[in-house]
Amino acid sequence: MLHKTRGIVLNYIRYKETSIIVKIYTEEFGLQTYVENGVRSARSKGKIALFQPLTLVDLVVYFKPGVEIQRISEIRCGHPFFHIPTDIKKMTLGMFVTEILGLTLREHTGNPALFNFLQEALLFLEEQEEQVENFHLFFLMSLSAYLGFGPETARDIRKQLQENSIPMGTGEEAVLQKILEMPFGGKLDIGKSQRMFALDRLLDFYRLHVDGFTGVRSVQVLKEVLE
Predict the structure, then answer these.
(1) What is the predicted pLDDT for the residue at 79?
(2) Pick from 136, 145, 138, 155: which is nearest to 209 by CA?
(3) Which of 33, 41, 97, 195 has its CA 20 to 30 A from that of 72?
(4) Residues of the chain scoring pLDDT < 70
């Protein structure tokens, strides 16, 4: 049976000579895996561009409960990105977001609230002209709430970390409290060292709550790019 749904491409791997296996987080069915045949052939006319990480897509898909790999009937770009693929800061933040989503999105059922948050966050990153260097902090803090372990206060984070022998200073707590209180992407007046300490503590917090949340490879690049 065919269904319409919006999706966010996470990643793909090559399959056979001209096909791919692609993971897409969908509004209707959560995390799904699809096979797309012939997309890497010369006749596909650049269709592979639709499957780049974080592409927002509109889909018509086949869905059979219990089937591991589904199929796509139709796909088109829902909102093209121009700045995320070309601006070095936004590109690096996009790499980080892609990796975080790959580590945290597990459910194979729809969650429209989570999907809408992710789409709006990506559109914000695409369109925002200033203050993008703190985007990842707001993203991690907000995402934790949608994943079910969002803190009420930064003191909650500090307490949980300390209970697991992870030190956290009052300065880091103050920064995280500001993020909790501000609207998404608000003007956060902090320096690079505060930003990086806050990121480390948020990632520690995720490790406490997400099974298999291992090292995030893009963190070091992120720290080098975001001044």
Answers:
(1) 94
(2) 145
(3) 97
(4) 227
Which stretches does DSSP call E strand in 121-193?
A: none
Domains and CATH numbers, the chain: 2-79 (2.40.50.140), 88-225 (no CATH)
Cα separation of 62 and 65, whole Å? 10
- Residue 123 CB-half CA count within 13 A: 10
pTM: 0.95
Q: Which H or E run includes 6?
A: strand 2-15
Contact 200, 192 (CB under 8 A): no
Q: Which pairs with CB-CB distance under 8 Å and at least 24 residues apart come from 156-164?
A: 157/201, 157/202, 157/205, 160/205, 160/208, 161/201, 161/204, 161/205, 161/208, 164/208
51, 29 Cβ separation under 8 angstroms:
no
Tell how strand 19-26 and strand 56-62 pair up: unpaired
Number of residues written out for the chain: 227
Tokens 């925002």 sit on residue: 128
